[in-house]
Amino acid sequence: MRIVIIGAGFAGMYAALSAARLREIQGVSPDQLEIALVAPEPTLVVRPRLYEPKPETLTAPLLDVLGAIDVTFVQGIAETVDTKSCMVKIATAKGTKKTLSYDRLVVTTGSRLFRPNIPGLAEHGFSVDSLDDAIALDKHLHGLARRPARNGRDTVVVAGGGFTGIEAATEMPARLRDILGANARTRVIIVERNNAIAPDMGAGPRPVIEDALHRLGVETRLGAGVASLDESGVTLSSGEHIETETVIWAAGIRAAPLTAQIPAERDNFGRLLVDRCLQVPGVQGVFAAGDAARAACDDEGNYALMSCQHATRMGAFAGNNAAAELLGLATRPYHQKGYVTCLDLGGAGALFTRGWEREVTMVGDVAKKTKQEINTVWIYPPKAERAAALASADPERVTDVTGFL
Fold it and tell me: Which ranges carry the FAD/NAD(P)-binding domain (predicted)?
């Protein structure tokens, strides 16, 4: 028997850990139940940190921990999924093709930045969506110091005033000062189509965010979108033209395209609709988790967000349930009733909220300390020690990434 997990993000990593944990508990050998993880690289990209400097350091190796729990790593890109024949076709790192059969499939392919067909965006836009994107942006920012201080060299425009856009924008003043010098006359501008910053955060946290932006000198353009980009800068839907050499696109994400190959219903974000055990209805043997799945967190109408906070626990349930079905055990309904957010606000500290209503419970330096602990400790893989790694993946005990629940 074989479980195939596609993707080595937070959901994929914990799906592998949890499936291996249940296999160990049941005394089943890896020869009897193989767990294979398919990904381009044997690393976890710490995507929530890609707005930070030195993005090339923001990865964590997985080979040792996978080896410690007897999970097979298959290096390559899953190109096609045939759910009728239960086969995954993989393009390997050596340029060859490989097919892998499965008895249970766990789709944890994550998400991609949504890039609309805006003139000039592909040629002139940057992002912090992937490791390569973040490295390209960091290289570009350092290259600004070699350019003349004119034509918007010292201006950064961030398109999108949501979670990612705010973290990228509030980190940018310090990054620019480090690169261009403390006396550089830098500008950072957030462009947001809605009439309020952080539209999804609600009214409670917004004054804290607005105060942080004011303290950092970050400007906003609300009720306007990006109409076009060119070498001179960005033109907004309002008609305003901002001279800049750096535009960071941070306006929404969608599930990775591979989910479209699963013959099942999807939401507007491309996520597969799953039942409470994270199975894809009507498709035998297929589970989905993380940004690839739209899953109910509770019985009150709350659904998992596209974040590592939810992906970690969803992955643990999906991996456990895939193994449970093959071993003749009962599956466990996914649940994640608690929800917190921790938004980095750069030099202005951070913002911590609790609950789906986002009640503000920490701000400033105290929240910043929590954010730094989340980013540098809690979201990283467990140590490559078999017992501890397996113990970390009990789906009923895997908390959200902040460890506060």
Answer: 1-315
Amino acid code (one letter) for 75: Q
What CATH number does the domain containing 138 carry? Answer: 3.50.50.60
Residue that finishes a domain, picked among 249, 280, 297? 249
315 near 18, Cβ under 8 Å? yes
Q: What is the dihedral of CA 306, 309, 314, 320, to 10 degrees?
A: 150
Contact 174, 351 (CB under 8 A): no
pLDDT interval class at 94 (50, 70, 90): confident
* Measured torsion, CA atoms of residues 272, 273, 277, 281, in degrees rounded to the nearest 10: -100
* Residue where a domain terminates, one of 304, 337, 370: 337
Check pLDDT > 70 for residue 405.
no
Closest CA to 312 of 13, 111, 36, 58: 13
Residues 235 and 292 both lie in one domain:
no
List the domain range (segments joined by +) for residue 170.
115-249
Q: How many CB atoms lie within 10 A of CB 328?
A: 7
pTM to 2 decimals?
A: 0.93
Number of domains in the chain: 2
Which of 188, 208, 144, 134 has the alpha carbon at shortest distance from 362? 208
